[in-house]
Amino acid sequence: MGNTPGKHASPLPTPRKIRRGCSKELYRTIKRLGVYIPEDLVKQGEALYYKKVIGNLLWIAEHISNRKVLADWWDEAVSAELAELWQVDRETLSRAFRDAFGG
User: Fold this and answer.
1) What's the CA dihedral at 27, 32, 64, 81 to 10 degrees?
2) Rounded CA gap, 18 and 12, in Å?
3) pTM for this prediction
4) Which residue, 60, 77, 81, is CA-closest to 13?
């Protein structure tokens, strides 16, 4: 047996895919927020989100098909720091993320 995943398991995403996914999710969230976030703060937010995803990659990969659970994780692990960085209301940010992410 090689290093290939099982019949129904998918391989872990590459760092590039993770970075692009985080960027897209935050872009969609910002659009739903309807407020201006300066480019440098967007980049800092993407770096923060990327770091959190990489730190929990195995758990996220296990729950990849359950967007509600992933959105709950995002609320707990990411939303507070991101809301503080972007100086927006945490509840509004969480709602915008759930709308954008589908959880």
Assistant:
1) 70
2) 10
3) 0.86
4) 60
pLDDT in tens, 80-100: 999 999 999 999 999 999 999
Q: Which amino acid makes up residue 22?
A: C
Each domain of the chain, given as residue ranges in start order, spans 25-101
Q: For residue 34, how many other CB atoms are within 10 A of its CB?
A: 8
Give pLDDT tens digits for 10-46. Answer: 788 899 999 999 999 999 999 999 999 999 999 999 9
Query: And the tokens for 85?
Result: 């960085």
Residue 2 CB contacts under 8 Å (≥ 6 apart), including other chains = none
Q: Which two tokens stand for residue 69?
A: 């659970």
Q: Which residues, at least 6 apart from 15, have a Cβ–Cβ distance to it below 8 Å?
A: 54
**CA dihedral in degrees (11, 54, 77, 36; nearest 10)?**
-110
